[in-house]
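Form 7-S
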Amino acid sequence: EAVVAAASAALAEKKAALAASDLRLAKLKAALDAAVMERGALQAQVGDCGARLRRAELVVSGLGGERQRWERANVELILRISALAGDMALSAAAVAYFGPLDGFARTKARRQCETAVARAGLRASAPFDLRTCIGEQVAEEGWRALGLPADAHSAENALIMHKAVRWPYLLDPHGLASVWVRRLQTGRSLIVTRMGASSSGGGGGGGS
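Output:
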């Protein structure tokens, strides 16, 4: 009996040690699982940080090009401001006097005006371009969509007509200006008549 009791006590001791080992093993396994989960979370953070870093590099690269664009725009703006008075004087002369002139005569008149502006001590854009100075690209594209010819002379004529205070007299042998003006004035109760038509005759038409 003493031997059996001793063996039982030893067995109980071994069972207790085994239970303690199992408990330590369970804790170690739980710690391992937690470490694996933390590792996965850290790897996800590393991937997210890498993606953010790449996006930041793209933004910085884009801002570098944007900075150069803004620097160029700043220089251009400074030049335009310094030439503002001369450009406005040339624009006023162009709107007032260039309308009846053809391309050759208009170029000659522009040079004469540029010389006069320089003698007056005013700086102007070189070369001076009326469309660049007081024109709007959106408006010009809209005019072309209504039938204005695409050449630069026609665009300048349309701009002069748009900016002038007085009604223009259009020399229009091919009828292009007539078509464009009618489309431009659609919905404005434009009255179309012909030379020699009586005021009560059928030469008039409205709403073109």
